[in-house]
């Protein structure tokens, strides 16, 4: 979902470093033990048969979407990471139509797994970022180099909450941004329309770049745990 937020001066374009934020970690301490066990239970890879079965079970555009995804992952593996980013980013930006959660899932805020998204053929910014994240890991990009980042996006004077996927070639490097609003992968410094708020992935903790985050990190952690479980059931292991 991309909810409207109050218009405010954009935050400084200080993208989060690929390291955990200790203050946020303390806040989430009661949730972390079970969460981290979930993350470390299985190595990241992909299971062709489970993906195919999930596509068949979900129906719609699922079978064709899974076939396209598997062909893209297979061709991307072993190529330079820049080529993997381009292939996965292009697949989802071209195949998925933007739509609000209420229209696709019947809920105000629903996080789709990658095969769910492919089966529907439509999703919101969070769904794009999640699908690209898992697919890039399946293609061999280390999860430590990827962050899903909540941002404030300036859409011609209207500021809205938005999510993108950031790729860090090194922990201290400027990230590259994979986004459904702009199909071209660009360095963060070239995306002056985006102001980062906080970020996360399956290995790191919630990270703030300012005094306040957009929404409740604990609630989003619960959604993230759920989508991890769904993705693993679909063959992203």
What would you note in describing this structure?
The protein is of the alpha+beta class. It has a single domain (22-233), classed as C8orf32 fold (Roll), CATH 3.10.620.30. Helix content is 43%, strand content 16%. It has helices at 22-27, 29-40, 48-58, 62-76, 81-95, 101-104, 114-120, 125-138, 217-233, and strands at residues 97-98, 122-123, 146-155, 158-167, 176-178, 186-187, 194-200, 207-208. The strands form two sheets. It has a six-stranded antiparallel beta sheet. A hairpin with a 2-residue loop joins strand 3 and strand 4. Helix 3 runs antiparallel to helix 4 (62-76). The chain is globular, with a radius of gyration of 17 Å. The two termini are 26 Å apart.
Can you tell me the CATH architecture?
A: Roll
CATH topology: C8orf32 fold
Number of helices: 9
Low-confidence stretches: 1-13, 19-43, 209-215
Give the SSE string: HHHHHEHHEHEEEEEEH
What's this model, at a glance?
With 237 residues, this protein is of the alpha+beta class. The protein is built from 9 helices and 8 strands.
Task: Provide the descriptors you would attach to this structure in a database record.
9 helices, six-stranded antiparallel sheet, disordered N terminus, globular, 16% strand, two-stranded parallel ribbon, alpha+beta, C8orf32 fold, 8 strands
